[in-house]
Amino acid sequence: MKALCATDLSAASEATIENETCLECLGRIGVEEIHLVTVIPSNVHVGMPGMDFEKRREEALSRYRQVIEDAGFDVETHVVRGTPHRRITGIAETIGASMTIVGSRGKSPLENRVIGSTARNLARTTVTPLLVNRVEREADDPDVVRQHLFQRMLYATDFSENADRAFEAFSYLRHATDEATLVHVDTPKDPGLPEDQEPADRLRELAGRLEDWGIETRTDVRTGDPADEILAAETEYDPTTILVGSRGHSRLRRLLLGSVSEDIVARADGNVLLVPPERTA
Question: Residues in domain UspA (predicted)?
């Protein structure tokens, strides 16, 4: 597997890249090659006095590269210019990445959960599963919020095709997952199950698949606002990562992030793994 790790060379990005436990988790799910990507925004001009942005970023990436190579990965680096989320998405597609990783600060001074514009735009346009790796906000030397990326998973499903696609990520996550919580929130807008099947029964079927892989699994059917209930489940069960699918394409073939997924990506305390729909020809 190949993973693309997007960095703006900030302290938050450094925390994501240099955490040994996070790197070990990526190795356990089958990542062998990591592409480090940093984008110089289009509005930063090459000719600005005293600024050699490409050279400075290449030097910074070389330090990160050494850390990741020492952890046993093959590494490629990319310093490119353009709109960050578009270039990152384009490179991920070109190299055939199985996952894109971006660091994001956690709680804001106003006690709201926030993610940066690049992380939000990646969530809306990604063509690969996107791991938003939460990093401490109020720290001069921040660390990741959850050391183990995939040890305790919370999978949220509405039983849609996109949610089923997200569940299939367990085919590789299982190598780093010890326990999982499967959550469904009953709402009138559910895609629906066959009339003879209850949500609790369907969750138990999914749980059985994970338990066959040796993953300790619980199920939880809730009622209420989906995003609020999923985030309440995060508070109750303390997962390392929430796994969720996103919804559909617009006429412009751009991924539109569903409101529930967007709320979870923006407001979760810990990491979020967002799986987009399969691309159509």
Answer: 2-132, 150-276
